[in-house]
UniProtKB/TrEMBL annotation:
GO CC, one annotated term: cytoplasm
Matches recorded under PANTHER family: ACETYLTRANSFERASE, RIBOSOMAL-PROTEIN-SERINE ACETYLTRANSFERASE
GO molecular function, one term: protein-N-terminal-alanine acetyltransferase activity
This protein's record includes keyword Transferase: yes
CDD domains registered for this protein in UniProt: NAT_SF
Pfam families xref list: Acetyltransf_3
Segments forming domain N-acetyltransferase: 20-175
Gene3D superfamilies for this protein: 3.40.630.30
UniProt name for this protein: N-acetyltransferase
Top-level lineage group: Bacteria
Record's keyword terms, sorted: Transferase
């Protein structure tokens, strides 16, 4: 899956050659993203952006990770989605997301992740899709709920970020949930 047309946006792979643009994007939107995204703190210039994107490019080559940008119709990067973990051996993956503030509230991420779930389960035979988010991240929990995921539990103080140890909700969708729905 290299590219997918969504409503008013395109989802396509975000790659190391785009490091300069990604560094600029992160600098411009850091304040909107940094509360829940460690990379929004560590991507500070073109080199650190390339390192981050290269990790995902290497993961893609090994079929273990994937990273996509979400581009508005005018070509601007407005968010992204990722398979933070992708394991055919374990038949599971974990999805992550972000949107610039201007792109929120339109269902863009829900639509994008639905396409990723369809691809992971229908084309790749993945059985379980996970979603992890801080218990304080209501917008993120709402996406998981909207996607039909089930809240399975909370990992206590498992997300240490910016001097805070947040409890983390683990949501998941398994193949049999879809056939039951
Ligand atoms: C998490 C995050 C991506 C959610 O963004 P979002 O815009 O709420 O998510 P979606 O794109 O799915 O849009 C859902 C919103 O659009 C609305 N919407 C409009 N049309 C819609 C449609 N066709 N389908 C679904 N939702 C729609 C929903 O009602 C919802 O708005 P509401 O929360 O006011 O009810 C965003 O808050 C973010 O980037 N946060 C910072 C980074 C972050 O926390 N990432 C997750 C780490 S775990």
């Amino acid at each position: 899956m290299l590219s997918r047309q969504l409503t008013g946006a395109v989802m396509r792979t975000l790659e190391p050659w785009q490091a300069a643009a990604f560094a600029t994007y992160t600098a411009e939107h850091r304040d909107e993203l940094v509360e829940f995204l460690p990379w929004a703190e560590t991507v500070v210039d073109e080199d650190s952006a390339r390192e981050f994107l290269q990790r995902y490019a290497d993961g893609l080559a090994r079929d273990e990770r994937r990273l996509y940008g979400l581009y508005a119709d005018d070509g601007r990067l407005v968010g992204g989605t990722l398979f933070r973990v992708f394991s055919t051996a374990a038949s599971m993956c974990e999805v992550g997301v972000w949107l610039s503030a201007e792109a929120r509230g339109r269902g863009l991420v829900t639509e994008a992740v639905r396409a990723m779930i369809d691809w992971a389960m229908d084309e790749r035979g993945i059985n379980r899709v996970e979603w992890h988010c801080s218990t304080t991240n209501a917008a993120s929990s709402a996406v998981a709920r909207r996607l039909g995921m089930r809240l399975e539990g909370v990992h206590r103080e498992s997300f240490v970020h910016r001097g805070r140890a947040d409890d983390v909700e683990v949501w998941a969708l398994v193949s049999s949930d879809r056939t039951a729905a």
